Amino acid sequence: MQPDRTTIQRWHSQDIDEQSDMLRGWEQEYRQLSCGKFLGTVSTVQGPRITIVGEQTNQSLHESVVPPEDSLVFGLVLNRDNALQVDRRTVSTSSLIVMEGGREYDFRTEGSTQLLGVAMESSMFTGQDGGYNGVVQRALTQNVVPLAPAATMMLRHFWLMMSQILQNDDTWPASMPMSLLADTALNNILLALNMSTMQEAVPLPQSADRQARVVRQAIRYMSRNLDRNFTIADVCAATHVSQRTLQYHFEHCLDMSPQQYLKAMRLNAARSLLRNQGASRTKYPPSIAEVAAQCGYDHPSRFAGDYKRQFGVLPSETLRQAAQAGVAIP
Description:
Structural class: alpha+beta
Number of helices: 11
Radius of gyration: 21 Å
Number of strands: 14
Protein backbone atom coordinates (compact mmCIF):
# COMPACT_ATOMS: atom_id res chain seq x y z
CA MET A 1 0.00 0.00 0.00
CA GLN A 2 1.36 3.43 -0.98
CA PRO A 3 1.90 5.68 2.10
CA ASP A 4 -0.03 8.96 2.33
CA ARG A 5 1.91 12.01 1.15
CA THR A 6 1.47 15.37 2.79
CA THR A 7 1.40 18.24 0.30
CA ILE A 8 3.61 21.26 0.83
CA GLN A 9 1.85 24.51 -0.09
CA ARG A 10 3.87 27.38 -1.46
CA TRP A 11 2.84 30.92 -2.47
CA HIS A 12 4.75 33.79 -4.07
CA SER A 13 3.59 37.35 -3.52
CA GLN A 14 4.36 40.85 -4.74
CA ASP A 15 2.03 42.54 -2.25
CA ILE A 16 2.22 42.76 1.54
CA ASP A 17 -1.57 42.42 1.94
CA GLU A 18 -1.47 39.13 0.06
CA GLN A 19 1.49 38.05 2.18
CA SER A 20 -0.27 38.77 5.46
CA ASP A 21 -3.44 36.92 4.36
CA MET A 22 -1.74 33.67 3.35
CA LEU A 23 -1.83 31.85 6.69
CA ARG A 24 -5.19 30.53 7.82
CA GLY A 25 -5.93 31.00 11.48
CA TRP A 26 -3.37 33.79 11.87
CA GLU A 27 -4.36 37.45 12.30
CA GLN A 28 -1.70 39.60 10.66
CA GLU A 29 -1.28 43.16 9.46
CA TYR A 30 1.86 44.19 7.58
CA ARG A 31 3.07 47.69 6.73
CA GLN A 32 5.96 48.19 4.32
CA LEU A 33 8.39 50.77 5.69
CA SER A 34 11.26 50.64 3.18
CA CYS A 35 11.03 51.73 -0.45
CA GLY A 36 10.98 49.29 -3.35
CA LYS A 37 9.02 46.45 -4.90
CA PHE A 38 7.85 43.87 -2.39
CA LEU A 39 8.66 40.19 -2.96
CA GLY A 40 7.70 37.46 -0.53
CA THR A 41 7.08 33.73 -0.26
CA VAL A 42 5.21 31.57 2.22
CA SER A 43 5.64 27.80 2.42
CA THR A 44 3.65 25.62 4.80
CA VAL A 45 2.90 22.00 5.58
CA GLN A 46 0.36 20.79 8.12
CA GLY A 47 0.08 17.53 10.00
CA PRO A 48 -1.37 16.21 13.25
CA ARG A 49 -0.53 18.61 16.11
CA ILE A 50 2.03 20.58 14.07
CA THR A 51 2.23 23.14 11.25
CA ILE A 52 5.53 24.29 9.76
CA VAL A 53 5.62 27.76 8.21
CA GLY A 54 8.49 29.32 6.26
CA GLU A 55 8.38 32.98 5.23
CA GLN A 56 10.73 35.18 3.24
CA THR A 57 10.35 38.94 2.67
CA ASN A 58 12.66 41.46 1.03
CA GLN A 59 11.55 44.79 2.54
CA SER A 60 11.56 46.37 5.99
CA LEU A 61 8.18 45.72 7.60
CA HIS A 62 6.21 46.57 10.72
CA GLU A 63 3.88 43.70 11.56
CA SER A 64 1.12 42.91 14.01
CA VAL A 65 0.96 39.11 14.44
CA VAL A 66 -1.56 37.00 16.38
CA PRO A 67 -0.89 33.23 16.17
CA PRO A 68 -3.80 30.75 16.12
CA GLU A 69 -5.62 30.05 19.38
CA ASP A 70 -4.54 26.99 21.39
CA SER A 71 -1.08 26.93 19.83
CA LEU A 72 2.49 27.68 20.77
CA VAL A 73 4.80 28.94 18.03
CA PHE A 74 8.59 28.55 18.04
CA GLY A 75 10.64 30.37 15.42
CA LEU A 76 14.19 30.93 14.25
CA VAL A 77 15.58 33.56 11.90
CA LEU A 78 17.62 31.71 9.28
CA ASN A 79 19.51 34.44 7.41
CA ARG A 80 22.49 35.90 9.22
CA ASP A 81 22.29 39.47 7.87
CA ASN A 82 18.80 40.05 9.25
CA ALA A 83 17.76 42.69 11.79
CA LEU A 84 14.58 41.58 13.53
CA GLN A 85 12.77 42.59 16.71
CA VAL A 86 9.82 40.92 18.44
CA ASP A 87 8.13 43.09 21.07
CA ARG A 88 11.24 45.30 21.05
CA ARG A 89 13.58 42.38 21.80
CA THR A 90 16.34 41.85 19.24
CA VAL A 91 16.33 38.40 17.61
CA SER A 92 19.74 36.96 16.75
CA THR A 93 20.61 33.72 14.97
CA SER A 94 21.21 32.17 18.39
CA SER A 95 17.82 32.97 19.92
CA LEU A 96 14.43 31.26 19.80
CA ILE A 97 11.18 33.18 19.27
CA VAL A 98 8.40 31.82 21.53
CA MET A 99 4.78 32.99 21.06
CA GLU A 100 1.43 31.98 22.52
CA GLY A 101 -1.68 31.68 20.36
CA GLY A 102 -4.28 34.42 20.71
CA ARG A 103 -1.74 37.06 21.86
CA GLU A 104 -0.63 40.01 19.71
CA TYR A 105 3.06 40.43 18.97
CA ASP A 106 4.87 43.36 17.40
CA PHE A 107 7.42 42.45 14.70
CA ARG A 108 9.85 44.80 13.00
CA THR A 109 12.15 43.60 10.24
CA GLU A 110 14.90 45.45 8.41
CA GLY A 111 15.70 44.30 4.89
CA SER A 112 15.49 40.71 3.69
CA THR A 113 14.21 38.28 6.31
CA GLN A 114 13.94 34.50 6.30
CA LEU A 115 11.98 32.95 9.16
CA LEU A 116 10.81 29.44 9.92
CA GLY A 117 8.21 28.77 12.58
CA VAL A 118 6.72 25.63 14.08
CA ALA A 119 3.16 25.99 15.40
CA MET A 120 2.19 23.19 17.78
CA GLU A 121 -0.89 22.38 19.83
CA SER A 122 -0.42 24.04 23.21
CA SER A 123 -1.70 20.90 24.98
CA MET A 124 1.58 19.17 24.02
CA PHE A 125 3.38 21.44 26.51
CA THR A 126 0.97 21.26 29.46
CA GLY A 127 1.24 19.04 32.53
CA GLN A 128 -1.43 17.23 34.52
CA ASP A 129 -2.34 20.47 36.29
CA GLY A 130 -3.13 22.09 32.94
CA GLY A 131 -0.26 24.57 33.18
CA TYR A 132 2.70 24.90 30.86
CA ASN A 133 5.95 23.10 31.47
CA GLY A 134 8.04 25.42 33.70
CA VAL A 135 10.76 26.08 31.13
CA VAL A 136 8.10 26.87 28.49
CA GLN A 137 6.34 29.30 30.85
CA ARG A 138 9.62 31.12 31.45
CA ALA A 139 10.25 31.25 27.70
CA LEU A 140 6.82 32.80 27.12
CA THR A 141 7.62 35.62 29.54
CA GLN A 142 10.72 36.44 27.47
CA ASN A 143 9.36 35.87 23.91
CA VAL A 144 12.95 35.91 22.60
CA VAL A 145 15.09 33.30 24.38
CA PRO A 146 18.90 33.38 24.12
CA LEU A 147 20.07 29.81 23.43
CA ALA A 148 23.23 28.17 24.69
CA PRO A 149 25.76 27.45 21.89
CA ALA A 150 25.12 23.69 21.88
CA ALA A 151 21.35 24.26 21.87
CA THR A 152 21.70 26.75 19.01
CA MET A 153 23.65 24.26 16.90
CA MET A 154 21.22 21.42 17.58
CA LEU A 155 18.04 23.42 16.96
CA ARG A 156 19.32 25.28 13.87
CA HIS A 157 20.36 21.96 12.29
CA PHE A 158 16.81 20.64 12.78
CA TRP A 159 15.23 23.92 11.54
CA LEU A 160 17.45 24.10 8.43
CA MET A 161 16.52 20.52 7.53
CA MET A 162 12.81 21.44 7.68
CA SER A 163 13.42 24.66 5.73
CA GLN A 164 15.23 22.85 2.90
CA ILE A 165 12.35 20.40 2.51
CA LEU A 166 9.80 23.24 2.49
CA GLN A 167 11.71 25.14 -0.20
CA ASN A 168 12.65 22.27 -2.48
CA ASP A 169 10.02 19.51 -2.25
CA ASP A 170 6.36 19.27 -3.28
CA THR A 171 5.42 16.71 -0.62
CA TRP A 172 6.71 15.98 2.84
CA PRO A 173 8.95 12.85 2.88
CA ALA A 174 7.02 9.69 3.76
CA SER A 175 10.10 8.52 5.65
CA MET A 176 9.44 11.32 8.17
CA PRO A 177 5.71 11.17 9.05
CA MET A 178 4.27 14.38 10.47
CA SER A 179 3.19 12.67 13.70
CA LEU A 180 6.80 11.63 14.32
CA LEU A 181 7.99 15.12 13.36
CA ALA A 182 5.70 16.64 16.02
CA ASP A 183 7.23 14.45 18.72
CA THR A 184 10.77 15.18 17.48
CA ALA A 185 10.10 18.94 17.44
CA LEU A 186 8.64 18.77 20.96
CA ASN A 187 11.68 16.95 22.33
CA ASN A 188 14.19 19.20 20.52
CA ILE A 189 12.50 22.41 21.69
CA LEU A 190 12.29 21.29 25.33
CA LEU A 191 15.88 20.07 25.24
CA ALA A 192 17.12 23.36 23.77
CA LEU A 193 15.22 25.40 26.37
CA ASN A 194 16.49 23.25 29.25
CA MET A 195 20.05 23.52 27.94
CA SER A 196 19.65 27.31 27.92
CA THR A 197 18.06 27.93 31.32
CA MET A 198 21.14 29.86 32.48
CA GLN A 199 20.90 32.23 29.52
CA GLU A 200 18.43 34.63 31.13
CA ALA A 201 17.17 37.58 29.09
CA VAL A 202 17.69 41.02 30.57
CA PRO A 203 14.28 42.56 31.41
CA LEU A 204 13.36 45.57 29.33
CA PRO A 205 13.49 48.82 31.34
CA GLN A 206 10.21 50.47 32.29
CA SER A 207 11.11 53.39 30.02
CA ALA A 208 11.02 51.00 27.01
CA ASP A 209 7.48 49.92 27.94
CA ARG A 210 6.40 53.55 28.13
CA GLN A 211 8.01 54.34 24.78
CA ALA A 212 6.23 51.41 23.14
CA ARG A 213 2.92 52.40 24.72
CA VAL A 214 3.19 55.97 23.40
CA VAL A 215 4.13 54.71 19.91
CA ARG A 216 1.14 52.33 19.91
CA GLN A 217 -1.18 55.16 20.95
CA ALA A 218 0.23 57.41 18.23
CA ILE A 219 -0.15 54.75 15.55
CA ARG A 220 -3.72 54.09 16.69
CA TYR A 221 -4.53 57.81 16.40
CA MET A 222 -2.92 58.04 12.96
CA SER A 223 -4.80 54.96 11.72
CA ARG A 224 -8.17 56.29 12.85
CA ASN A 225 -7.62 59.72 11.28
CA LEU A 226 -5.90 58.95 7.97
CA ASP A 227 -8.57 60.79 5.98
CA ARG A 228 -7.88 63.98 7.95
CA ASN A 229 -5.11 66.46 7.28
CA PHE A 230 -3.86 66.35 10.87
CA THR A 231 -0.40 67.39 12.06
CA ILE A 232 2.20 65.76 14.28
CA ALA A 233 1.20 68.34 16.89
CA ASP A 234 -2.27 66.73 16.89
CA VAL A 235 -0.64 63.31 17.46
CA CYS A 236 1.35 64.76 20.36
CA ALA A 237 -1.81 66.16 21.89
CA ALA A 238 -3.55 62.78 21.59
CA THR A 239 -0.63 60.97 23.24
CA HIS A 240 0.12 63.69 25.84
CA VAL A 241 3.81 64.05 24.96
CA SER A 242 5.93 66.76 23.40
CA GLN A 243 6.99 66.64 19.77
CA ARG A 244 10.59 66.04 20.83
CA THR A 245 9.53 63.11 23.02
CA LEU A 246 7.39 61.60 20.27
CA GLN A 247 10.28 61.91 17.82
CA TYR A 248 12.63 60.18 20.26
CA HIS A 249 10.17 57.33 20.98
CA PHE A 250 9.55 56.61 17.28
CA GLU A 251 13.25 56.66 16.43
CA HIS A 252 14.04 54.39 19.36
CA CYS A 253 11.22 51.88 18.65
CA LEU A 254 11.01 52.02 14.84
CA ASP A 255 14.20 53.73 13.63
CA MET A 256 12.15 56.39 11.85
CA SER A 257 10.43 59.66 12.62
CA PRO A 258 6.67 59.99 13.24
CA GLN A 259 6.40 61.87 9.93
CA GLN A 260 8.10 59.03 8.02
CA TYR A 261 5.90 56.41 9.66
CA LEU A 262 2.75 58.42 8.95
CA LYS A 263 3.65 58.67 5.27
CA ALA A 264 4.29 54.93 5.09
CA MET A 265 0.98 54.27 6.85
CA ARG A 266 -0.95 56.52 4.43
CA LEU A 267 0.64 54.81 1.41
CA ASN A 268 0.03 51.30 2.75
CA ALA A 269 -3.61 52.16 3.42
CA ALA A 270 -3.93 53.58 -0.10
CA ARG A 271 -2.49 50.40 -1.56
CA SER A 272 -5.09 48.30 0.24
CA LEU A 273 -7.89 50.58 -0.99
CA LEU A 274 -6.59 50.48 -4.55
CA ARG A 275 -6.37 46.68 -4.52
CA ASN A 276 -9.94 46.41 -3.26
CA GLN A 277 -11.10 49.03 -5.75
CA GLY A 278 -9.45 47.23 -8.65
CA ALA A 279 -11.10 43.96 -7.69
CA SER A 280 -14.49 45.58 -7.00
CA ARG A 281 -17.47 44.88 -9.22
CA THR A 282 -19.15 48.19 -8.43
CA LYS A 283 -20.12 50.34 -11.40
CA TYR A 284 -18.54 53.57 -10.14
CA PRO A 285 -15.54 52.78 -7.92
CA PRO A 286 -13.65 55.74 -6.41
CA SER A 287 -10.92 57.30 -8.53
CA ILE A 288 -7.22 57.33 -7.66
CA ALA A 289 -7.60 60.97 -6.59
CA GLU A 290 -10.45 60.01 -4.24
CA VAL A 291 -8.39 57.18 -2.75
CA ALA A 292 -5.50 59.61 -2.25
CA ALA A 293 -7.85 62.02 -0.45
CA GLN A 294 -9.16 59.22 1.78
CA CYS A 295 -5.58 58.65 2.91
CA GLY A 296 -4.80 62.29 3.62
CA TYR A 297 -3.25 63.40 0.29
CA ASP A 298 -4.47 66.71 -1.13
CA HIS A 299 -2.42 66.50 -4.33
CA PRO A 300 -2.84 63.40 -6.57
CA SER A 301 0.46 64.06 -8.37
CA ARG A 302 2.41 64.10 -5.11
CA PHE A 303 0.56 60.96 -4.05
CA ALA A 304 1.52 59.16 -7.27
CA GLY A 305 5.19 60.12 -6.85
CA ASP A 306 5.33 59.01 -3.21
CA TYR A 307 3.47 55.81 -4.06
CA LYS A 308 5.91 54.81 -6.80
CA ARG A 309 8.91 55.53 -4.57
CA GLN A 310 7.42 53.39 -1.82
CA PHE A 311 6.22 50.39 -3.84
CA GLY A 312 8.05 50.59 -7.17
CA VAL A 313 4.82 50.89 -9.20
CA LEU A 314 2.28 53.60 -9.98
CA PRO A 315 -1.19 53.53 -8.35
CA SER A 316 -2.71 52.75 -11.75
CA GLU A 317 -0.55 49.62 -11.99
CA THR A 318 -1.85 48.39 -8.65
CA LEU A 319 -5.41 48.97 -9.90
CA ARG A 320 -4.74 47.02 -13.09
CA GLN A 321 -3.10 44.11 -11.29
CA ALA A 322 -5.97 43.88 -8.82
CA ALA A 323 -8.54 43.98 -11.62
CA GLN A 324 -6.73 41.14 -13.39
CA ALA A 325 -6.66 39.09 -10.21
CA GLY A 326 -10.33 39.93 -9.59
CA VAL A 327 -10.26 39.10 -5.88
CA ALA A 328 -10.77 41.65 -3.13
CA ILE A 329 -8.87 41.53 0.16
CA PRO A 330 -10.94 39.71 2.81
